[in-house]
Amino acid sequence: MPAVAGQRLLLLVLLAFCRIANAERRLLVRDLPDKGPKCRNTVQGLLLVADDRGVICKRDELNYATGCCSVGQQYDCSQCNLNDKCCSEYESCVSCCLAPFHDAVNIAKQVLRSPRHKESGVWGNAFDYCKGVCRTHSRSTAHENAYISARHHCFSQLGRPMLSDPLPPGALDGVEVVVGLKNEACDTFCLRRKKRCSQEHLRWLNSCDRLREHFGCEAGCEMVTGLGPSYVDGNAPKPERPAMCFAQPQGATTLSCSVHEENHMMLCPCV
């Protein structure tokens, strides 16, 4: 019976094949369970690295197998000013930003990756948010190639360092802070708005920080007696220093609602 013998032979071959396949399946090498943590980190720092746990360490203290700092300080804000949330080191900015009391986890879900561009979407997680906002950008520079301050890595919504103390609570209550017209004094501008210029509040507007809240100050900001608080129109002749902000030295006695300068726009407190 050759046909029966052939079928038996084919069945034996199939059984042998199945046994070999099962044996190979049992011999497959399996990955060992990963017992250690894995971290993302800021990568590019020459001397310092911050990981996604908020730990900052020296480059040679980074565990390259896991991406985590093997030692270091968690949530290090020692290089940061917490009034303006600006830091002198990028990695310190990321580490401090991740501290729970700064609530980066929730803020990341609300802040656009690119301000004023809804299509950019919000940040995916706290670490990506902190890495992104801590990078230097135009708001922390003057003259396009100089920093306002050595603390130019900021994770505040303002996004730039403050050079003066914060205003005391209630300093500008009831005051409408507005940008006047070119070549016009604040008393004239406020009057046309059916208000008056409050000379007593001018001192609170007389700082580069207040000016940068309302103007670009692209060319920088200087303290000069008799010239502030004001911004020079960007189309002014070059000798008049277009796009420059001017404030008067602290304690100046020449602050006045009636002062105006050619091609300047005054910062006015109307009440």
Automatic annotation (TrEMBL):
Do you know which Pfam families this protein is assigned to? SPRING1 (PF10218)
Membrane-topology descriptor: Single-pass membrane protein
Q: Where in the cell is it found?
A: Golgi apparatus membrane
Q: What's the protein here called?
A: SREBP regulating gene protein
Annotated source species: Volvox reticuliferus
| Similarity comment: family membership | Belongs to the SPRING family.
Mind listing the UniProt keywords for this protein, alphabetically? Glycoprotein, Golgi apparatus, Membrane, Signal, Transmembrane, Transmembrane helix
Q: List, alphabetically, the GO terms of the cellular component aspect.
A: Golgi membrane
Q: Tell me where on the tree of life, at the top rank, the source sits.
A: Eukaryota
**Stretch forming the signal peptide:** 1-23
Mind listing the GO biological process terms from this record?
Answer: positive regulation of SREBP signaling pathway
